[in-house]
Amino acid sequence: MGIEKYVSEVKIIAAAHESVYNHLSNLTNLEPLFDPNRLNELKNQYPDTPDIKLENFRATVDECTFSISPIGTIGVQIIERDPFKLIKLTGSQSVPFQVNCWIQLLPIDNANCRLKITVHADLNPMIKMLVNKHLKNGIDQIAEALTKIQYEGSKIGG
């Protein structure tokens, strides 16, 4: 097993970093992203995305679970918050490998901020072969999707 690091492109969000942080640090706010129509839009936008089915989203402020076909149920929980700057998440026991994720925010001005996602995953060679490309692409796609959310006070969203 070896720790692999995946870093998204830095994205700009047309909303104050406080608003973005407040939204993303409450996992119940992610539920609209699991709407089947929204997922189909993303699939059409990113045709090389693996053909997976996301469903059964359940969340509290600190953790969420959802099913990914054909993998099974996945859980994510927030393990640390640094207000307005950083949200650290980790996978639950149902994830087939240890994974940690950092969502970093940096203000540009009162109405815009930068976002970067960093993922550290402890992958064995076989799993790395299967998911490496998807993780690299997926991190950027998630970062891009987070720019499309309608945050409080945002000028763009979605």
What does this structure look like?
The protein has 158 residues and is α+β, with helices and mostly antiparallel strands. It has one domain: Alpha-D-Glucose-1,6-Bisphosphate, Chain A, domain 4 (2-Layer Sandwich), CATH 3.30.530. Helix content is 26%, strand content 41%. It is built from 3 helices and 8 strands; from the N terminus they run E-E-H-H-E-E-E-E-E-E-H. Strands 1, 2, 3, 4, 5, 6, 7 and 8 form an 8-stranded antiparallel β-sheet that branches. Strand 7 and strand 8 form a beta hairpin. The mean pLDDT is 85.
Q: What is the SS-derived class?
A: alpha+beta
Per CATH, the architecture is: 2-Layer Sandwich
> Could you tell me how far the N terminus lies from the C terminus, measured between alpha carbons in angstroms?
39 Å
Give the CATH level 1 class.
Alpha Beta
Number of helices: 3
Number of E-type strands: 8
Order of helices and strands, N to C? EEHHEEEEEEH
Give the % helix.
25-40%
Largest sheet: 8 strands, antiparallel
Indicate the overall shape: globular
Spatial extent as radius of gyration: 15 Å
Mean of residue pLDDT?
85
Tally of discrete structural domains: 1
Low-confidence stretches: none
Give a quick precis of the structure:
The protein has 158 residues and is of the alpha+beta class. The protein has three helices and eight strands, in the order E-E-H-H-E-E-E-E-E-E-H.
Tags for this entry?
158 residues, alpha+beta, eight-stranded antiparallel sheet, 41% strand, globular
